[in-house]
Amino acid sequence: MHPPPPAAAMDFSQNSLFGYMEDLQELTIIERPVRRSLKTPEEIERLTVDEDLSDIERAVYLLSAGQDIQGTSVIANLPFLMRQNPTETLRRILPKVREVLHVAGVEMQLTAAVSFLTILQEESVSIHTYAHSFLQVILLHLEHRDAGVSNAWLETLLSVIEVLPKETLRHEILNPLVSKAQLSQTVQSRLVSCKILGKLTNKFDALAIKREILPLVKSLCQDVEYEVRSCMCRQLENIAQGIGTELTKSVVLPELIELSRDEGSSVRLAAFETLVNLLDIFDTDDRSQTILPLVKSFCEKSFKADESILISLSFHLGKLCHGLYGIFTPDQHLRFLEFYKKLCTLGLQQENGHNENQIPPQILEQEKKYISVRKNCAYNFPAMIVFVDPKNFHMDLYSTFFCLCHDPEVPVRYTIAICFYEVSKLLNSGVYLIHKELITLLQDESLEVLDALIDHLPEILELMSTGGESSVQENKLSSLPDLIPALTAAEQRAAASLKWRTHEKLLQKYACLPHVISSDQIYYRFLQRMFTIMMTNNVLPVQKAASRTLCVFLRYNRKQEQRHEVIQKLIEQLGQGKSYWNRLRFLDTCEFIIEIFSKSFFCKYFFLPAIELTHDPVANVRMKLCYLLPKVKSTLKIPADKHLLQQLEMCVRKLLCQEKDKDVLATVKRTVLELDRMEMSMDAEQLEKEKQQNDGRPMSDKTFEKKRRDTKTPTTLPKNIPISVPGPTSGTQSTSKEIKKSKLIRSQSFNNQAFHAKYGNLDKCAGKSSTAAYTPSVSGLTKTSVISLTDDSFRTRNATSAPSSFSSNTPLPSTSRGTGNSGDPKSGGSKDTQPRKAALKSRKSNP
After folding, report:
1. Residue ranges under compositional bias (Polar residues) (predicted)?
2. Which of 326, 488, 570, 700 has the smallest set of CB atoms within 10 Å of its CB?
3. Nearest to 268 by CA among 212, 322, 207, 310
4. CA–CA gap between residue 369 and residue 631 (Å, rounded)
């Protein structure tokens, strides 16, 4: 169509008008099929059915007087009618279905085959009733003139055979097969008989198979039509499994040998594939004296035959190597290996750089088959390593592996990338031999190849770092100088593409790098890239993957200065960033930190920056924080983190009192109820020490050890293990009573949906820091020690003052446990940095 000119330059010349007329004619032609598809009033009248009819009556009416599309709809709905009213459906509808199927078209026949199978699978009726009502209909349409319809009914029948009793199978199916398998019947009838015989062998004993089924099998294996011989040959595997080893050797093997010399290439191919699948059944003598010569002959003639035989042969090479292992003579072993190498480069010698448009179609089709052969060779490469022994890999197979990794076709490289992990495991200490090929596949121009390789990238890199002769990890990694550039280039290539799932997967797999390369290499080459992705990428799963990987990098970083710099960037560039999107990602990062790090680490560095987001101007940020609060509370321990718990309570109360967004407020209320149900973790050691101090007696380490041994806590657990306290103990009896009393008061407060007036003005409460707060408590404590609210954790955040990078001397917003334990037991970091201690003022208030 011609594009219309602009209005300002409208041309009313004769040629232009003719052009517009042609456009209008094209539009008319496009609209004609739409008009023809509309129904006339008469057609609509014929398709209209009385709405007062029941489902059964409507189905009977449509099958009797409706159009084909309506009858097809009824048959598609047959499983539902059987579930709803099986008796009436069998009595009134099924006879109509039988009548309609005699003259039905292809679509209705296919629909009926699927519906009959669905009824069988749903077990709407008993097997006896199903066989009586449906089996004859299925058998009647097996030889439909349309091949697709015949195959659909055959698939239904094969499923029915699985559940029918032996007597029914014998009388209804096996006995008629004697006549259906005769040469006087059609080719379609004999093909159906072959598939039914293959299924029946699993339902009868060996004696019945030998007497009633094997004579028919031999007859069909010698049929005059190659299609029938090929079809029967492919069923010999099922028959062999049903009759056992002895009958297989005496009856099936001779037939397979004869069929392997058949004049039809499809018959020889079927015989070869069946022999390969039955290798485990035959003993060593049969393999060496009968099967091996057949395989040798088949391989020698394969290059002179059709390429489809080469495709099948290359696909089954792995099974052949496994089944014939130990039978080859050294000369045969070498010939078979050379045959495999030849297949791996098949078609590469003929490439001449011509344009595909200049190559004849038959040559293009041949090249596609050669690509399939090389792809199958790549698939079987791990089996060939076992065949030659991994010790001989460098001499016998390395050059072939190199060719497969550098193959010009993506499917071949994709397949070898999938197998790379298996190859690495098999090589074990010789894995260093394929370092360069790993770099090659990481730098592959196709993202499909990269996606296949990174599925097992952590395992591959671990093998690369632990394999080889050296026992020192740093020395092993020095043999991979190009690994880091290859990894960074792969990530950048994935980021530049539209395949964000590949990018996400790659970032997730990068979490293994701390086990492979040094923390300095990660810090200078990967960590800043994770920050960039978190702040600039537009795909949320990719950002989350980068966030989690960055947390893993931080977890394994041993240098305190670098750790502090990363923490500062997380807090200031994300938690205090200008974009609300960055602040949302900060909360995601906090969730990952809670998962990966210790509770004390989160409380020390991220607790206060996280709960400060209760003042965020964006409702989505406040709502996301509300969902995170239960996990935040789970990091606290009592009594060490009592001051943090009080600040958490203040933030929640402020949200309850001042939140104006109805969705956020509803989320806050649900979150508070969840927080109320949570049990606080107790620091057993700290509680025991406070008890001793309250009694006026100093407690030595030996005294505490004796007290700890007297408890029921296992001695193998660490001293600071979080212990959930469901009931009162000698050290926490008063606290537990206060928890129960606070929960009761808080429940009454939520039921009334109102809070006391003195809690509405938090600024007033904040100004009286020396007064005990007696409020609905998140922790369940009614008598709490109130932290001085002049602490800088509640200062107003100025987003514009946050620098893009931080000096290591900048203090971190941290808190400290009451026990003074600033070390992170999970992170293994040093204790050089002294945490900022919050000033606590405690006083008791009467309830």
Report:
1. 727-736, 796-824
2. 326
3. 310
4. 57
What tens digit of pLDDT does each residue of 498-547 get? 899 999 999 999 999 999 999 999 999 999 999 999 999 999 999 999 99
* Residue 380 CA: distances (Å) to CA of 43, 253, 299, 319: 61, 26, 16, 9
Backbone CA torsion sign across 720, 721, 726, 727: negative
Mean pLDDT of the residues in the chain? 78
The structure's pTM equals 0.72
Instruction: Please tell me whether the peptide bond between 79 and the residue prior to it is cis, using omega within 30 degrees of 0.
Output: no
Answer yes or no: are the C-beta atoms of 92 and 58 closer than 8 Å. no
Contacts of 191 (CB under 8 A, 6+ apart): 227, 228, 231
Question: DSSP states of 350-387 as a string?
Answer: T-----GGGS-HHHHHHHHHHHHHHHHHHHTHHHHHHH
Residues 6+ apart with CB under 8 A from 424: 431, 434, 459, 460, 463, 464, 467
Q: How many CA atoms lie within 13 A of 732 on its CB side?
A: 23
pLDDT tens by residue, 346-378: 988 765 555 556 678 888 888 899 999 999 999
pLDDT band at 297 (very low <50, low <70, confident <90, very high): confident
Burial of 768 (C-beta count, 10 Å sphere; 0-12/13-18/19+)? exposed
**Eight-state DSSP code of residue 779:** S
Q: The sheet that has 637-638: what strands, in order across it?
A: 637-638, 681-683, 722-724
Q: Which residues contact 25 (CB under 8 A, 6 or more apart)?
A: none
Q: Distance of alpha carbon 710 from its chain centroid, rounded?
A: 49
**Cα dihedral 618→619→623→629 (10° resolution):** 50
- DSSP states along 492-520: HHHHHSS-HHHHHHHHHHGGGGGGTS-HH
Burial 409-424 (b: 16+ CB within 10 A, else e): bbbbbbbbbbbbbebb
Residue 186 token pair: 């059609």
Average pLDDT over residues 424-446: 93
Q: Which residue, among 292, 179, 296, 281, has the nearest Cα to 238 in the 3D structure?
A: 281
Number of neighbours of residue 2 by Cβ within 10 angstroms: 10
> How large is the average pLDDT for residues 298-303?
80
